[in-house]
Specification:
The protein is built from four helices and no strands. The longest helix is centred in the middle third of the chain and has 17 residues.
């Protein structure tokens, strides 16, 4: 987790909107960095993310089955 924290700090400083005035695209990058850290910095959320990457259709299956007539 230290590696993730270091990368987050480095990128958040580089792309902080206050350090890049007049560059609106930096705001979107900064938000993406924060969102990624929110997931990867929390072990439970990271585990969920890893599971989703392994089986991206798991949440789409639901519990109902295919139905039919």
């Amino acid at each position: 987790m230290d590696e993730i924290k270091k990368a987050y700090r480095k990128l958040s400083l580089k792309y902080h909107p206050d350090k890049n005035p007049g560059k609106p695209e930096v705001i979107e990058i900064f938000h993406k960095i924060n969102n990624a850290y929110e997931v990867l910095g929390d072990q439970n959320k990271k585990n969920e993310y890893d599971m989703m990457r392994k089986n991206p259709f798991a949440n789409m299956m639901g519990g109902g089955g295919m139905g039919g007539g």
